[in-house]
């Protein structure tokens, strides 16, 4: 008999969800994603927006980029200079003084230059001083290239010297000859971003040309995992020893291959250089031409090989217990096949949460009306950075006290109550997102635990197993224990939010010289990381007890904790050794598919050499193949869920405490399992 648990938390959870939906609706009403997609000029108009005057002008141009000392200023649209939408970036050096002086006999130069002036300006007779004061045209243009839909100087390095279009100097249009090193601060940051963009574009191209092969690899990994589960039920012992030696063999092959590459590069010019000598290179294939790289790979693989062999030697007597548990878990999977596909439900729920959070965050970030500020060339202008209205600005006295001042677009914001609390809403968006994701994971853990409990606590298997154990368990979790699952997810979400805030503070204070502050942040981050891991462990075991007994979260967490403490040695043996063996199985599945993908994408399989796409980086598809260690890789995701049976360890401990094998209290575990555990069955098991 069950009853609803943690009702108050359930009500709060439902109210929060309704509030979250309301927040998304309000954000959609006030937000405008075009502010993210399109850059905005000094008049608050979008560049490249359809059905506007700027439809064919997709790039933002800065009149005087020297005023923008940092790339972050450019991206945040807060550079104190006029910004216009243009169809293309300048491709040459030119100054307004030179163009105006020669417009009579070189009209082409004027026609080219005026496209970077304010729309409608076509008066080359206007004095240079007035043009520069009113910022009708830029004082100079320099060769640029578009990046993030903005014109950035076309920086390059020639013989170690920073240049722009192979020139080291340029005229600033105000009678001075400037060196391109005046832009060094901006150039350094921009070049790093441009290099990253180059790598990012190549990676995107690789994904675009190999995505269907990646899906095939993930499908193969899933099929191999399913075959692994089927074989595990009948040949767990033999299969695992094959897996163990298979992993050792794969790592051994990796060691041999690294040694072969290391020896092959001997005597080749440049191969004896170190990674430090060549520095950071965007073409990572350069590192594979160094002997040091292959030597480092070989040492790492040797260390891993030795560790695995030593662990196998010391844990050989415990492997029998793990194999028995795996057989029991595989037998349960055989009776409840629907549990194989439930992780898809969890994946869909998490995907919905991520999508809703991302959309809400974008709409919140783009909420607000255009805010215009007074941009003055004079540093002592008392009206500088004050809000203004571009429609009435020319009728004010600002231009009299601050010659050359303009009312230009600064950012999106507002003075209403909603706009004042945008940051709080963003924080709430992150918090509820973490809460919902943790709830989806908790629901999956409790559902699977309940399904496996239906199998384990059935005295006559499979006769006593319910008809639809997975659906029954899901229904019980939703109907009776939504509050308990939400309570556990809430605790975890609070800790995760604190970790997010600490990471944000660490990022903001990264440049500080205060050693004590950095030390304190490091300690706090470490402590909350440990706390999160501990809470995840406690929550998972609490959900198992909730699925079995139907008690509230706190009671279940307490009983689970003391159950584990009373059986700490047994849990360590059954749980961790089993996890280790399953980890070896996952390595073989992931490593096998990864090696197959490596040979395929490097065109080393003759049969498929013509089918393999030509890639910039052959390791790109391997990042999302099952060989990746990332938890969000699809193949790894399915393999991890399909090969996870930690619930039975807790049930075995509970069975051993509650029962003694007598007629009145018979064991519910299989006869082979309690024999391996050293427990005798005092009464024969019913068929």
UniProtKB/TrEMBL annotation:
<keyword id="KW-1003">Cell membrane</keyword>
<feature type="transmembrane region" description="Helical">
    <location>
        <begin position="335"/>
        <end position="359"/>
    </location>
</feature>
<keyword id="KW-0325">Glycoprotein</keyword>
<feature type="transmembrane region" description="Helical">
    <location>
        <begin position="432"/>
        <end position="459"/>
    </location>
</feature>
<dbReference type="InterPro" id="IPR007603">
    <property type="entry name" value="Choline_transptr-like"/>
</dbReference>
<feature type="transmembrane region" description="Helical">
    <location>
        <begin position="238"/>
        <end position="256"/>
    </location>
</feature>
<keyword id="KW-0472">Membrane</keyword>
<comment type="function">
    <text>Choline transporter.</text>
</comment>
<keyword id="KW-0813">Transport</keyword>
<keyword id="KW-1133">Transmembrane helix</keyword>
<keyword id="KW-0812">Transmembrane</keyword>
<dbReference type="GO" id="GO:0015297">
    <property type="term" value="F:antiporter activity"/>
</dbReference>
<dbReference type="GO" id="GO:0005886">
    <property type="term" value="C:plasma membrane"/>
</dbReference>
<protein>
    <recommendedName>
        <fullName>Choline transporter-like protein</fullName>
    </recommendedName>
</protein>
<feature type="transmembrane region" description="Helical">
    <location>
        <begin position="580"/>
        <end position="601"/>
    </location>
</feature>
<feature type="transmembrane region" description="Helical">
    <location>
        <begin position="294"/>
        <end position="315"/>
    </location>
</feature>
<feature type="transmembrane region" description="Helical">
    <location>
        <begin position="211"/>
        <end position="231"/>
    </location>
</feature>
<keyword id="KW-0050">Antiport</keyword>
<comment type="similarity">
    <text>Belongs to the CTL (choline transporter-like) family.</text>
</comment>
<feature type="transmembrane region" description="Helical">
    <location>
        <begin position="480"/>
        <end position="502"/>
    </location>
</feature>
<comment type="function">
    <text>Choline/H+ antiporter.</text>
</comment>
<dbReference type="Pfam" id="PF04515">
    <property type="entry name" value="Choline_transpo"/>
</dbReference>
<feature type="transmembrane region" description="Helical">
    <location>
        <begin position="7"/>
        <end position="27"/>
    </location>
</feature>
């Amino acid at each position: 008999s069950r009853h609803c648990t943690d009702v108050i938390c359930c009500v709060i959870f439902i109210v929060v969800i309704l509030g979250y939906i309301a927040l998304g609706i309000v954000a959609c009403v006030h937000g405008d994603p075009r502010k993210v997609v399109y850059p905005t000029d000094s008049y608050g108009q979008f560049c490249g927006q359809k059905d506007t005057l700027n439809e064919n002008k997709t790039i933002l141009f800065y009149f005087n980029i020297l005023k923008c000392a940092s790339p972050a200023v450019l991206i945040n649209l807060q550079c104190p200079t006029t910004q216009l939408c243009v169809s293309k970036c300048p491709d040459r050096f030119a100054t307004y003084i030179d163009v105006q002086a020669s417009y009579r006999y070189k009209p082409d130069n004027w026609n080219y230059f005026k496209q970077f002036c304010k729309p409608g300006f076509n008066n080359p007779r206007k004095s240079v001083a007035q043009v520069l004061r009113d910022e009708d045209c830029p004082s100079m243009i320099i060769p640029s290239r578009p990046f993030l839909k903005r014109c950035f100087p076309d920086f390059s390095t020639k013989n170690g010297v920073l240049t722009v279009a192979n020139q080291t100097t340029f005229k600033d249009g105000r009678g001075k000859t400037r060196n391109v090193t005046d832009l060094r601060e901006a150039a350094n940051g921009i070049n790093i971003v441009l290099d990253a963009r180059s790598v990012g574009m190549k990676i995107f191209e690789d994904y675009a040309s190999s995505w269907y092969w990646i899906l095939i690899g993930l499908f193969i990994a899933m099929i191999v995992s399913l075959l692994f589960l089927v074989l595990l039920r009948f040949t767990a012992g033999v299969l695992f020893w094959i897996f163990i030696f298979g992993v050792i063999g794969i790592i051994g092959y990796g060691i041999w291959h690294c040694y072969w590459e290391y020896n092959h590069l001997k005597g080749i010019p440049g191969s004896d250089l170190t990674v430090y000598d060549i520095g950071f290179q965007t073409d990572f294939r350069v590192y594979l031409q160094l002997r040091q790289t292959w030597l480092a790979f070989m040492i790492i693989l040797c260390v891993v090989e030795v560790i695995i062999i030593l662990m196998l030697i010391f844990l050989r007597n415990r492997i029998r217990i793990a194999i028995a548990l795996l057989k029991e878990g595989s037998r349960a999977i055989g009776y409840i096949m629907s549990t194989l596909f439930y992780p898809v439900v969890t994946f869909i729920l998490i995907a919905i949460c991520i999508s809703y959070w991302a959309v809400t965050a974008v709409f919140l970030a783009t909420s607000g009306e255009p805010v215009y500020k007074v941009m003055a060339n004079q540093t002592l202008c008392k009206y500088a950075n004050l809000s203004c209205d571009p429609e009435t600005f020319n009728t004010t006295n600002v231009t009299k006290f601050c010659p050359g001042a303009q009312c230009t677009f600064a950012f999106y914001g507002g003075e209403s109550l909603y706009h004042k609390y945008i940051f709080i809403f963003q924080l709430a968006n992150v918090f509820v997102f973490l809460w919902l994701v943790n709830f989806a994971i908790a629901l999956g853990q409790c559902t699977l635990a309940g399904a496996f409990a239906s199998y384990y606590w059935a005295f006559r298997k499979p006769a006593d197993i319910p008809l639809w154990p997975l659906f029954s368990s899901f229904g019980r979790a939703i109907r009776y224990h939504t509050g308990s699952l939400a309570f556990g997810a809430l605790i975890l979400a609070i800790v995760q939010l604190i970790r997010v805030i600490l990471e944000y503070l660490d990022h903001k204070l990264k440049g500080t010289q205060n050693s004590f502050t950095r030390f304190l942040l490091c300690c706090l981050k470490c402590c909350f990381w440990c706390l999160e891991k501990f809470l995840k462990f406690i929550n998972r075991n609490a959900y198992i007890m909730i699925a079995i007994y139907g008690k509230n979260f706190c009671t279940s967490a307490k009983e689970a904790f003391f159950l584990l403490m009373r059986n700490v040695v047994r849990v360590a043996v059954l749980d961790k050794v089993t996890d280790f063996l399953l980890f070896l199985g996952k390595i073989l599945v992931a490593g096998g598919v990864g090696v197959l993908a490596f040979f395929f994408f490097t065109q080393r399989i003759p049969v498929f050499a013509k089918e393999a796409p030509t890639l910039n980086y052959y390791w790109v598809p391997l990042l999302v193949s099952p060989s990746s260690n990332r938890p969000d890789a699809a193949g790894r995701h399915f393999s991890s869920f399909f090969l996870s049976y930690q619930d039975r360890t807790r049930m075995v401990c509970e069975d051993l405490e509650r029962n003694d094998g007598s007629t009145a209290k018979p064991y519910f575990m299989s006869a082979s399992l309690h024999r391996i555990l050293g427990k005798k069955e005092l009464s024969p098991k019913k068929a």
